[in-house]
Amino acid sequence: MSDEAPKGEASKSAASKSAASKSGASESGTSDSGTSGNGRNETGTVRSRLWRGGKLIEEDFPFEDISDHIRDEGSLVWVDLCEPDHKRLLSLADELSLDPLAVEDAMSHGERPKVTRYATHQFLTSYGVKLVDAGEDDAALGRTRLVKQRVSAFVLPHGIVTVRGSNFDMDEVVQRWDDNSDLIQYGVGALVHGLLDVIVDGHFIAVQSLDDAIEQLEDDLFDDDLPNGALQRSTYSLRKQLVELRRAVLPMREVVNAILRHRSDIHAPAELNSWYDDLYDHTLRAAEWTESLRDMVSTIFETNLSLQDARLNTTMRKLTSWAAIIAVPTAVTGFFGQNVPYPGYQSEGGFVFSLIVMVGLGFGLYLGFRRRNWL
Questions:
Q1: What is the pTM of this model?
Q2: What SS3 class is residue 151?
Q3: Which of 59, 328, 332, 352 places its Cα 20 to 30 Å from the Cα of 85?
């Protein structure tokens, strides 16, 4: 979704400086400044980066230096807090003059994706999504489970502070910044773009996976060998996942649009306009795709009900036809079972005649029902 930028000698130099800064940070004993590997997603870990002039200068610097770096006019700072405790976030908020309402939104659950402007910063909340297997039994039915990954960001003039859960992989965002390292020179607008770009990419992957699952449902719809209960469970599961996905995808149009309208607040230069326009276009496409999938699932559900009604009608026609055929010999034997004399009474001719009537009428009814596709 984003173009990969070539890395020159400047990035190599930045990488070497980054390695040196990591070594220095570990020697200084900043155990809470983030770790490598899976430790970066552990509760309470802190990651950070410092750029100057578009070049990476330092990584995982001490937590106490955050406010000094972020107030430096020539610096660009990123700080990542993975499920921080309330006390630590409040301490950082006091240093950076973050609005208390924004801090409360960052810690609360169930917030809607949004962008809020405050006097000293912007605050945005969004959700990344991914699909995981729901289990071996459900996987056999083609069912998955949607996992939402919340991430919030305080956007300041010279830096960005992200607050996230441990299930959101921030390494993808960092890789996106590295792939487009030439954009870092444009300031905090480039960091915000990279973060939202990764989130919207995740939306596209989830929508594509659900689209494939819906296509499989359409194929299974006319498979008579598939248990009807399995198809219904899969349909309801997809419908539920789409509802959850819509809650994350649709508000992103407002989030990106608000940033576009007020990008001067984050000092985004004109060079980033095309990147944000492309991001907004992808956001609209993901939202429209999600809406179309919702209509497709509703259609599958209604079609399945119609097919069940059609199968039930076919069964009822067959039962009615056979009941009518069986009623003929019942009626004939009942007539000839009268206790009064009639032509052929107590003779072989009467038995033969009644047998011919039963077979003839029954066979006639059978042919009539066959012509009408009732049998």
A1: 0.71
A2: strand
A3: 59
